[in-house]
Amino acid sequence: MRTSSERILTTHTGSLPRPAGLDRHDPEAVRAAVQTTVRQQLAAGVDSVNDGEVSKPSYATYVTERLSGFEGEPVPLDMRGFDVFPEFAQRTFGDPDLAAVMANPSCNGPVAYVDPTEVQADIANLQAAAGDAGEVFMSAASPGVIEMFMPNRHYSSTEAYIAALADAMKTEYDAIASAGLVLQLDCPDLACAWAIGPEPTLPEFRRVVTQRLEALDHATRDIPPEQMRLHLCWGNYEGPHHTDIPLADIIDLVLAARPAAISFEAANPRHAHEWKLFEDVKLPDGKVVIPGVLDSKTNYIEHPELVAERLLRYADLVGRENVIAGSDCGFATFAGFVPIDPRITWAKLAAMSEGARLASQQLWATSSVP
């Protein structure tokens, strides 16, 4: 994985707007969409690019097309915190189109990776589109986020279910890494699962996070840490988020996991202040942070000077070489549910690149920055 040795590099979290009317079951259409998506990222100045997840119905639930064991009745997410805002909850989650997107099957049988052809097609499409584009990454669902969206109705315990998912997903993780791509592990459950179901105590939730990260470390044991990055978030939806767990309560556990880079929300109004925790938290050797400098839930285009300001804060605390600019989360985490206008997405990415250039000018003031 490239690091910011000469200037602040840029990337994003994964999902990007899919072309209108894309039939993801049409291989030629998907291949063309990946080509277009990579080209648009490069035009926006993004350094580490991906396929935009255009072939997937969502960043997590796509695994039902690759794994066995998911034919159970859907179980809706029991999200806390909306009871005090019932009108907002109905307006947001009462949308039948969104409800259909979120109706995911539960696990009702043994989990196994049965169809590697789709990940191989994704890899081939991305490599063909990227050419010599520099760094290329590919996202994959973590065992924990699969469990969060598609709960266990088969295994004797959640722990056994997550262990089975880790063993199964190892096939996909290894395939991505073996192709020479950077593997991004999508782990929003590490933070947002705090607000799902009965409220746990902090020690209880930290044990849950530890168990999920241990499963992830086991599944990626054959992949070098520097070839992996981990993304966590509090749920990529516009809402009050007043019940979110503070990053400070879990950051030590996350930094102890194997992936060398940690991507997290740092731009939205609920978590933008948390850069301050790195005044007290020492970044371990070999670790890199990818703070979100773009809010993925608003159509505002961030000013490049604001992006630069956010990057400079992190660089001052953890070192310029340990910071990569990113987005809070994906811009189209579910196909058909796109809260950000596609053209605005590309403009936001361009603003991030310009902001990274401005920050780099200050951080490398004695040398010229392209």
From TrEMBL:
Superkingdom, according to UniProt? Bacteria
Q: Where is the composition biased (Polar residues)?
A: 1-14
Q: Which InterPro entries match?
A: Met_Synth_C/arc (IPR002629), UROD/MetE-like_sf (IPR038071)
A Gene Ontology biological process term: methionine biosynthetic process
Give the Gene Ontology MF terms in alphabetical order: 5-methyltetrahydropteroyltriglutamate-homocysteine S-methyltransferase activity; zinc ion binding
Region annotated Disordered, chain positions: 1-24
* Annotated PANTHER family: METHIONINE SYNTHASE, SYNTHASE, VITAMIN-B12 INDEPENDENT, PUTATIVE (AFU_ORTHOLOGUE AFUA_3G12060)-RELATED
This one is known as Cobalamin-independent methionine synthase II family protein
